[in-house]
Amino acid sequence: MLRPRDRNRCHPRLLTNQGGKRITPKPDRESPASQPHPPLVSDAADYRKRAQECLALAEKANVVRVREALLKMAAIWTKMADERDRRSGEKPM
Domain range for residue 73? Predict the structure, then answer.
């Protein structure tokens, strides 16, 4: 187990060189974090599916604020689906 002072040396923002000066590691250009990520939702059908999931959860929600938040999220997903349809020329389902 690392002692507290050793744990701080392992923290990326607290790395120090031999002279005690703090150094910040540079990100690796080949690391997965530096690669572009595919979109989590790709088309209007996916947006509508997420809207339906929010509506289903809202029906089951016992807390008013949670229900309201889920209904707002569903409205946003639906708006994004309509926007995607408009951009791509598709017709809404």
Answer: 44-88
Q: Is 58 part of any domain?
A: yes
The owner of tokens 């946003």 is 76
Residues sharing a CB contact under 8 Å with residue 50, sequence separation 6 or more, in sequence order: 41, 77
Per the rule left: phi > 0, alpha: psi between -120 and 50, beta: everything else, 20 is left
Instruction: Report if pTM > 0.85.
Output: no
Q: Let me know if residue 16 belongs to a domain.
A: no
**For the segment 44-64, what is each residue's pLDDT rounded down to a tens digit?**
999 999 999 999 999 999 999
Model confidence over 11-31: pLDDT tens digits?
544 556 667 666 665 655 555
